[in-house]
Design a protein that fits this description.
Blueprint (H helix, E strand, L loop, with lengths): L7 E7 L4 E3 L4 H6 L8 E8 L4 E3 L2 E3 L3 H8 L5 E6 L4 E6 L3 E7 L4 E7 L2 H5 L6 E3 H6 L1 H7 L7 H10 L6 H13 L1 H11 L3 H10 L5 H7 L9 H13 L15
Parallel strand pairs: 3-6
Antiparallel strand pairs: 1-2, 1-3, 4-5, 5-10, 6-7, 8-9
Helix pairs in contact: 6-7, 8-10, 9-11
Length: about 250
């Protein structure tokens, strides 16, 4: 699949929730100024045919996506939609800098954060979903700065489980259950688009009523009313089953 032959619909969402016009081809992207997209929080790429799945990877034309992700060091959510399936990946922020070695009279590159390594799972012609999932243990084990954001990685993969192995599903589920209060606080802090994620957590019983009761007092903002309603219904019924469907916001 080539961008010269197949149409790719590209949509960006900035940190204020506003849509951003993005280039549709890799040539258009590099003809512009990549850094002008620094404020983007979410990228949605829609392809007009299904993806091919080979082993732990999905294949397609991802050169444009790779360029976006590589040039974006802030946290980013990526929705990749094929004709019959969809994938959502969350990438934490990372720090790219330099360290001066005065003794050796050299400058060394320095990268802090597993967010960079996660981005390397996207290639020009394939996305290594298996490697992305395998890196989850590193996210929660060695990168304390994104430990809570790991909940967003877990929720994203569980809600859109394309090519998700049983062992990874269990790891994501277990993490959400053991860190339910912290994960819920992260979603509340992010606010934009949290309703869909909270709906998933309650429907699948991935948060305890104790965690909900601790977080509810923090939801005084009127914009959080739909989430408050979801959590109150969950704590009152205790079954995690929502009666209201549809109209849910996309995560980030």
């Amino acid at each position: 699949m080539s961008t010269d032959e197949k149409e790719i619909k590209v949509t960006g969402i900035d940190e204020n929730g506003h849509p951003v016009i993005l280039p549709k081809t890799i040539d258009e992207y590099y003809a512009g100024v990549p850094k002008r997209f620094a404020g983007i929080r979410k990228i949605i790429m829609e392809y007009d045919e299904p993806f091919a799945v080979e082993g732990g990877s999905i294949r397609g034309d991802f050169a444009l996506l790779k360029a976006f992700v590589a040039d974006h060091d802030r946290q980013l959510v990526v929705d990749i939609k094929g004709k019959a399936d969809a994938l959502r990946l969350f990438f934490p922020a990372y720090l790219y800098g330099f360290v001066e070695d005065t003794f050796a009279r050299a400058i060394h590159h320095k990268i802090e954060g597993v967010g960079y390594t996660l981005r390397e799972c996207i290639g020009k012609y394939e996305i290594s979903v298996r490697e992305y999932d395998n890196l989850f243990t590193r996210v929660i084990g060695t990168d304390a700065a994104v430990a809570d954001e790991a909940g967003i990685i877990a929720i994203s993969r569980l809600m859109y489980p394309m090519n998700l192995l049983k062992e990874h599903k269990e790891a994501y589920t277990e993490y959400l259950k053991t860190r339910d209060e912290e994960v819920l606080k992260v979603l509340v802090r992010e606010q934009t688009g949290a309703e869909e994620a909270v709906s998933y957590l309650t429907e699948h019983r991935l948060i305890s009523t104790e965690a909900v009761k601790k977080v509810l007092p923090q939801l005084s903002d009127t914009s959080m009313a739909p989430i408050v309603a979801l959590l109150l219904r969950y704590t009152n019924n205790g079954d995690g089953i929502l009666t209201q469907k549809g109209g849910r916001m996309s995560l980030f």
